[in-house]
Amino acid sequence: MPNENYKRGARSEYYVMDRLKKKGFSCIRSAGSHTPVDIVAGRAGKGFGIQVKRLEVKENKDVLSSLAHNELIDFCKEIGLQPMVAFKNESGFWQIEHLIKGGRRPL
């Protein structure tokens, strides 16, 4: 039986997927987090690899460790996806941002 952290993480991933689908994206979820990507999403010929974090992030705070950040960028580059991270901002709203070497930038 899955633990509570896994269940909360999965709910967050499904929530982000639902929001993306409402915006016209096709999505699949990588269950169990065996890769740096939780969700693969695509629309209009562009693919995105998304890591979902359910924690609230203060402005200018790192969402991922530098190791996880670089692994996600490298993994996505290898398979032709744009790396992104989804997280709750300090107001409690979900946002998705592109990852770039050394940081992130809003959509």
Percent of residues in helices comes to 25-40%
Count the helices. How many? 2
**What form results from the Cα inertia axes?**
globular
Structurally, the number of domains stands at 1
Mean pLDDT metric: 86
Q: What can be said about the biggest beta sheet?
A: 6 strands, mixed
Entry summary:
Helix content is 31%, strand content 37%.
Provide structural commentary.
- Helix content is 31%, strand content 37%.
- With 107 residues, the chain is an alpha+beta fold.
- It has a six-stranded mixed beta sheet.
- The protein is globular.
Keywords, please?
alpha+beta; 6-stranded mixed sheet; 107 residues; 37% strand; globular; 6 strands
Write the layout of secondary structure elements.
Blueprint: H1 4-22, E1 26-29, E2 39-43, E3 46-57, H2 66-79, E4 82-89, E5 94-100, E6 103-106
Parallel strand pairs: 3-4
Antiparallel strand pairs: 1-2, 2-3, 4-5, 5-6
